[in-house]
Amino acid sequence: MMSSSSSPFLSSAAPDGEHGYVAAGEQPPSTTRSTKSTCMTGTVEGHHRFVIRDYSRLRERLEDGEYVRSGTFSVAGYDWAVVFYPRGNSYRYRDTDHPAVYVQLMTDRAVAAATFDLRFVRADSGKPWSVHPPVAAPHRFSTLPLPFAPAMFGVKVETMQRLQANYICRDRLTIDCIVRVVGKPRVSATAPLPEIDVPPPNLPAHLGSLLAGKTHADVTFDVQGEQFAAHRVVLAMRSPVFNAELFGPMSNAGDPIKVGDMQPAVFKVLLDFIYTDSLAAMEDLDEDTRRELARHLLVAADRYDMDRLKLICGNILEKSLTAQTVASTMALAELHGCRELRDACVEFVIAMGMNDEVMISRHGGDQLHCLSIITHFFNEIKNFCTGVSTICAVILLAQ
Question: Start and end of every BTB domain (predicted)?
Fold first, then answer.
């Protein structure tokens, strides 16, 4: 005996300690849950104005490489200062003819990423004027011991003569400093991804309204005296037979097209399916009426080469198979090339243990015209059973 653990039809894996079985090859139902989180990097900006009075006296007093520093100001929790070298920073630039100005991080043992803009206020207009190209990428300021980044960044500016001419007003130099500190990245809490509710497709409903309202209808069908208005392009799109009939060389653009060998109720359901791709009109019918209508629709679907409708009707008939209907259903499937429905009838008879004599006796003389089909049908059943076991075939057909 094969154990359940080795059976190809069962799997003993169950999540979270649960006990259960899932058919081999099947996947448990899954749901999709979409969430999002956001990374944000903010920037804090601060402004400081550093006014140097008695500029000429300060320049005379300081030597090359000496500087004057502004009071500290705070931006984003860090302390900063403006550092100005009236005679240039000889240590940095080896040039004593150009004054230099810097932004310095003053917070002890800190690291900060920031951009800056150093401006001198012009003497003629009183407007600040940047003394260096824009700083796009943040600089890394650090007051940690080497080899970390330096604590200050800056530029050398125009010559002393041009500085004196353009920016010194009443022996006063005004420096504006803008510091923009880039904050640490912050990631928001995970939240459900917002979704916009989109209504279900409504094209079938619109086409159904088009059929019911007969708006712009350009073809009429006569089915046993009852007339149906429709639209050529919709019918041609759904059926190659309608396409040839309505747009081929034998098409008739005038008189109603007569449809023979079909009931008006069947043609109406056929049109509804062509426009809406559903059989909603059959949902409220009782089982016998639904089965009978499905049989007629299958014939119509084969007539107009509508394969999907054939499969739907075959599915309805398969689900309603009984010992009384299997022979006629099998004959219908054979006549209209419904292989899936025919195979379902074979499996049904095998499962019921019926033979050809029993089937014919149950259906009476009105089914004798299908005798050749039934005989062929049972020959296939016997061949199938022989492949499994001759003894099983004898037992099955003897029941």
Answer: 217-283
Helix axes 287-303 and 326-335, enclosed angle (nearest 10): 10
Distance between CA 181 and CA 115 in Å, rounded?
7
CB-based burial, 194-211: b 16+ in 10 Å, e otherwise: eeeeeeeeeeeeebbebb
Q: CA-CA distance, 227 to 224, in Å (whole number)?
A: 8
Residue 324, beta-bridge partner list: none
**Range with the lowest mean pLDDT among 80-84, 232-236, 349-353?**
349-353
User: If we measure between CA atoms, which residue out of 300, 302, 336, 338 comes closest to residue 318?
Assistant: 338
Peptide bond into 147 cis (omega under 30): yes
Q: Where are the beta strands (DSSP E) in the chain?
A: 35-36, 39-40, 43-53, 68-69, 73-75, 78-85, 100-105, 111-121, 128-130, 139-142, 152-156, 172-182, 186-187, 191-192, 219-223, 226-230, 257-258
Place of tokens 């198979």: 321
DSSP string, 10-52: -----GGG------TT---------EE--EE--EEEEEEEEEE
Contact 381, 345 (CB under 8 A): no
What type of residue sits at position 42? G
pLDDT tens digits for range 264-317:
999 999 999 999 999 998 999 999 999 999 999 999 999 999 999 999 999 999
Q: What is the pTM of this model?
A: 0.51
Report the chain's terminal Cα–Cα distance, integer Å.
29
In sequence order, what DSSP letters do the residues of 121-180 get, joined into one string? EPTTT--EEESS----SPEEEE-SSTTSPPSEEEEE-S-HHHHHHHH-SSSEEEEEEEEE
DSSP state of 98: S
For the chain, the domains span: 43-184
